[in-house]
Please model this.
Amino acid sequence: MAESSYATMANYPISVIGSHYCTPNQVDVVISRKVKTLRYGEFVVSDMNGNFVFKVKGTSFGWHDKRVILDAADNPLITLKQKMLTEHSRWNAFKGESTDNKDFLFTIKRTSIFQLKTELAVFLANNNSKEKNCDYLIKGNWSDRSCVIYAGDSSAIVAQMHKKITAKSLLIGKDNFMVTMYPNIDQAFIVSLIVILDAINAVNDAAVIGAAAGAGVASGACF
Model:
């Protein structure tokens, strides 16, 4: 039902990063991260044959967190930058390695401050609704590492993510995500949304782990 809903509205490429990242057929990719990497936020994106499609580099500078998405030849495509001191965990995206307003592509933020399940709204640079009407909506359950990306506030699905667990991934210690992207959607754009989704929820994961560790220390101190 979701696929037919999407097919009726997306008979032309939806390009955000580049039209050459839009294909007329459905595409599946695997986003892989080394769980224990020293450089958090780094991924590789591969097709189902194991060929690199995109790479993601994560950096921290000052109070800011940043990700850069590169193509398979290491050319920078998108810079994702966390906006500090915001209540809705906002990230902004820019062309190439730029962070200038003239190269602004889109912004993404939580739809509410407190959420039991993840819900993020995406507003493209040409959106003039003053963030009243989103261009894309991401809904999911991060504990299950799954999400669905919708076109606007509709039931039309443009991409889906779920956790991919294999015997190989368990042995080499990687966290893998399978992403299905429907026809005519910008694949580089979808990857950037997944990377931001991971970054936003990583803060919550760290907070939960920290709280649990603190509770353990406090509990131990009572004995």
